[in-house]
Design a protein that fits this description.
The protein is α/β, with parallel strands linked by helices. Helices cover 31% and strands 21% of the residues. The chain contains seven helices and eleven strands. The strands form three sheets. A seven-stranded mixed sheet has the order 5-2-1-6-7-11-10, with helices on both faces. Strand 3 (45-48) and strand 4 form a beta hairpin. Helix 6 (161-174) packs antiparallel against helix 7 (176-185). The termini are far apart.
């Protein structure tokens, strides 16, 4: 168990994918005192998701870059956000002190455009894989992977794969028993093999 909860910055931007963010957040909320989660965005206030519902950003980017874990969802909004210099610069600054940086689905395109994945292994949504790969030509993209762990960076395949990755991240931080307990409490069948990717051939 951590001596104190890890501070998680859950990143919001217009058009983010709901499950990309809230699947991992749900699982991270289950281990007692494991994680302290706060939503952050370019500006405080409501941010519209790709599905329509709005989620309140509790803090603006300028408030802080000092988080233990940065969680970046995907969603159709990434097509615009890859050209958002404010978001990309905040990611660069927040990455430095972070113990871990995680992305779900096309969220890895944002990390790649920020230059954070250069020379590293990473993956993304299989349907959007080619577009994501173009955002980071210096990244070692792995098409067949449920999620990829490279140092402090965790990247996952599409949408629901973020939940498997989140459990893999919880295991790295808190150990196997806490991870299995979180999956049990969520009644979630964890695919704990990052190389078991049934959607790679379908993308």
């Amino acid at each position: 168990m951590n001596p104190s909860p890890l501070r998680v910055a859950a990143v919001l931007f217009p058009g983010f994918e709901v499950l990309d963010l809230f699947g991992p957040i749900e699982l991270m909320s289950l281990p007692p005192d494991g994680f302290s989660i706060i939503t952050v965005a370019e500006r405080e206030g409501p941010v519209e998701s790709a599905q329509g519902p709005r989620v309140a950003a509790e803090r603006a980017f300028f408030h802080s870059t000092d988080y233990d874990l940065v969680l970046v969802p995907g969603g159709r909004g990434t097509r615009t956000e890859v050209d958002n210099p404010v978001l990309l610069e905040w990611l660069r600054q927040a990455e430095r002190p972070a113990r871990f940086v995680a992305s779900v689905c096309t969220g890895s395109a944002l990390l790649a455009r920020a230059g954070l994945l250069d020379g590293r292994r990473a993956t993304s949504n299989k349907i959007a894989f080619d577009w994501v790969a173009r955002q980071g030509p210096a990244v070692h993209w792995e098409r067949r992977a449920r999620w990829v762990e490279d140092g402090k960076f965790f990247t996952s395949s599409g949408v629901s794969a973020g939940m498997d990755m989140a459990l893999g991240l919880i295991e790295r931080i808190l150990g196997r028993p806490a991870t299995e307990d979180a999956a049990r409490r969520a009644e979630y069948g964890w695919n704990d093999d990052p190389e078991d990717d049934p959607f790679a051939v379908k993308g």
